[in-house]
From TrEMBL:
Family named by the database record: Belongs to the biopterin-dependent aromatic amino acid hydroxylase family.
Gene Ontology terms: biological process: L-phenylalanine biosynthetic process
A GO molecular-function annotation: phenylalanine 4-monooxygenase activity
SUPFAM superfamilies per the UniProt record, alphabetical: ACT-like, Aromatic aminoacid monoxygenases, catalytic and oligomerization domains
Pfam family, one: Biopterin_H
UniProt-listed Enzyme Commission number(s): 1.14.16.1
Species of origin: Triparma columacea
Protein name (Swiss-Prot/TrEMBL): phenylalanine 4-monooxygenase
Length: 468
C-alpha cells in the first residue's frame, strides 16, 4: 500500500555463456548478459568487482580467465556488454567480473591485474559505493514492512470508524496479524465477519457491471480466472495466501500483509521483489461506498487481478527495481509514475479508453468519469484531460488526492506502458544496475555497495527516543 501519495478519498463516485555456472535471472536494469556462480546471501562473502575491456578476437575471454584460476581467485559473476567500436573502428567488449577477495591490495589481486595489463585495453576495480539502504533479499522486507506512517488502528478524527470502538479493535487485531507476519510463513487466514462481507458485497454489486464495461481485457480475463481459483465472489472475501498461490504460478507476484501506509521508497522497494504490500482491513460499514485510505476492496478488486498479467507485473517490477538505492528525487518521480499508471492508468482497446489502474478499478464513480464517452458520468459533466503515456511527463505531473483526477495518462497497450517505463528507468541516474533473481529471492547489483541508514538502526533510535 503506497504512502501518502495514495492517501486519497477512494470515493465510489554477444553474450558470455558458461553452462556450468549459468542461472536465469528474470528481470534486468541495463542491457547485458549475466551469469552467476553463487547462491550465497548477497552480502555474505567479501568480493571485488572489476571491469575489463577486451579486443574482439577469438579466445580473448579464455586468455583472461585463466589468470583468475592461476591466482586462485574464485569468480562469482561474469557479465558482458554489447560490442562497441572505438575511434579507430576497432571492436571492443566490456566484461564485468566479480571475484571473492577481502582486499584489493592482496598479493593475489595485485598479481592478477599485473598479468592482465598487457591483455586488456582497460582493467579497473570498481570501488564500493555508498547508497541509500535497500533490501537485498526477500527476507529483508521484514525490516521495512512495519515502518508504517500510521498504524491500522490509529484512525484520524474524520474517519467514518473513528468513534466505533468495535471497528477500531478489529483494525488493531488485523494490524497485529500484519506486524507479526514474516516473509517465509504462509499468510494467516482472516476470518472476515458477516458485517465485513456485507460491506464487500455492496462494493462488489456496485462495481461488477462497470468493470465489465470499462476495465481492460487483461483485467477481465484475470478477474474471471480468480473467481474460479481464488474464491472471488460477492459472498466471500478472498484470502491473501490464496491470491499469492495463484499469482506465483502465473507471474511470480505475491501479496504481503501490511498494517498501514508505507513510505514511497519502502513500498516501491517491495515491488522489486514482485511483492505487493496489501492491507487486510475493510472500510467502515456506515459508508461502504467510501474509504479515506486503501482497503481490501481497493487492494483485492483493484490491484490483485492486474498482477496476474505478465506485462503489468513486469511493468510494476520495473518501477520497484529503479527505486532501489535511488535518490529521494528519483523515488518521487517513480512514485508519481506509479500514481498515474498502476493507480490511475488508462490504455487503448478497440478505439475506447479502458482502465488498468487500481484507483479506477475500485471506484465506480471515477471509473465511469475516466472512461465513459457520455456525460454526465461519475456524477459530473466535467471531462478530464487525457495525455499520452509518457513517464517523463507523468513523473512531474501533480495530482489531487481527494478528488477525481483532472489528468489521466493513456498508453497504447500494457506492453507499451511497460516498454516506455523501462526506457525511463534506464535513463535515471542510478547508483548501480540491479536484477532480481526469483530462484534465490535476491537482488544482484553490478558493483560493491555499502547500504547506509539501515532500518533496524533507525528503529532502535526511534525506540530510544520514545523511552528517553
Amino acid at each position: 500500500m503506497l504512502s501518502n501519495i495514495a492517501r486519497r478519498a477512494l470515493k465510489i463516485r554477444g553474450p558470455v555463456f558458461l553452462p556450468q555456472v549459468a542461472r536465469a535471472f528474470s528481470s534486468t536494469h541495463g542491457a547485458s548478459s549475466f551469469i552467476s556462480a553463487t547462491n550465497k546471501t548477497p552480502d555474505a562473502t567479501p568480493k571485488i568487482s572489476c571491469v575489463l575491456e577486451l579486443k574482439d578476437r577469438p579466445g580473448a575471454l579464455h586468455d583472461v580467465l585463466k589468470y583468475f584460476w592461476k591466482y586462485d581467485l574464485n569468480i562469482t559473476r561474469i557479465e558482458s556488454r554489447p560490442k562497441t567500436l572505438n575511434a579507430l573502428g576497432e571492436a571492443r567488449f566490456d566484461f564485468f567480473v566479480d571475484f571473492e577477495a577481502n582486499d584489493k591490495n592482496a598479493p593475489s589481486v595485485q598479481s592478477l591485474f599485473a598479468s592482465l595489463e598487457s591483455m586488456t585495453t582497460k582493467a579497473l576495480i570498481l570501488d564500493e559505493k555508498d547508497v541509500m539502504w535497500f533490501p537485498r533479499h526477500l527476507s529483508e522486507l521484514d525490516l521495512i514492512a512495519n515502518r508504517t506512517l500510521d498504524a491500522g488502528a490509529d484512525l484520524e478524527s474524520d474517519h467514518p470508524g473513528f468513534n466505533d470502538e468495535v471497528y477500531r479493535a478489529r483494525r488493531g487485531e488485523l494490524a497485529t496479524v500484519a506486524q507479526e507476519y514474516q516473509w517465509n510463513e504462509p499468510i494467516p487466514y482472516i476470518d472476515y465477519t458477516e458485517k465485513e462481507i456485507e460491506t464487500w458485497a455492496i462494493v462488489w454489486d456496485r462495481m461488477e457491471g462497470l468493470l465489465d464495461k470499462h476495465a481492460c481485457s487483461e483485467y477481465k480475463k484475470s478477474f474471471a480466472s480468480m473467481k474460479e481459483h481464488c474464491g472471488y465472489s460477492r459472498e466471500n472475501i478472498p484470502q491473501a495466501q490464496d491470491i499469492t498461490d495463484y499469482l506465483q504460478g502465473r507471474t511470480g507476484f505475491r501479496m504481503r500483509p501490511v498494517a498501514g501506509l508505507l513510505s514511497s521508497r519502502d513500498f516501491l522497494n517491495g515491488l522489486a521483489f514482485r511483492t505487493f504490500f496489501s492491507t487486510q482491513y475493510i472500510r467502515h460499514d456506515s459508508m461502504p461506498l467510501y474509504t479515506p485510505e486503501p482497503d481490501i476492496c481497493h487492494e483485492l478488486l483493484g490491484h490483485a487481478p492486474m498482477f496476474a498479467d505478465q506485462d503489468f507485473a513486469d511493468f510494476s517490477q520495473e518501477i520497484g527495481l529503479a527505486s532501489l538505492g535511488a535518490s529521494d528525487e528519483d523515488v518521487q518521480k517513480l512514485a508519481w509514475c506509479y500514481w498515474h499508471s498502476v493507480e490511475f492508468g488508462l490504455c487503448k482497446e478497440g478505439g475506447e479508453h479502458k482502465a488498468y489502474g487500481a484507483g479506477l478499478l475500485s471506484s465506480y464513480g471515477e471509473l465511469e468519469y475516466a472512461c465513459a464517452d457520455y456525460r454526465p458520468a461519475g456524477g459530473t459533466d466535467d471531462r478530464p484531460e487525457i495525455k499520452p503515456w509518457d513517464p517523463a511527463v507523468a513523473s512531474v505531473q501533480e495530482f489531487p488526492i481527494t478528488t477525481y483526477q483532472p489528468v489521466y495518462f493513456l498508453a497504447e497497450s500494457l506492453n507499451d506502458a511497460k516498454t516506455k517505463m523501462r526506457d525511463f528507468c534506464e535513463n535515471l541516474k542510478k547508483p548501480f544496475l540491479s536484477r532480481h533473481n526469483p530462484n534465490t529471492n535476491e537482488i544482484w547489483v553490478d558493483r560493491p555497495v555499502k547500504r547506509k541508514n539501515h532500518p533496524s538502526a533507525a528503529a532502535e533510535l526511534e525506540e530510544e527516543e520514545k523511552t528517553a
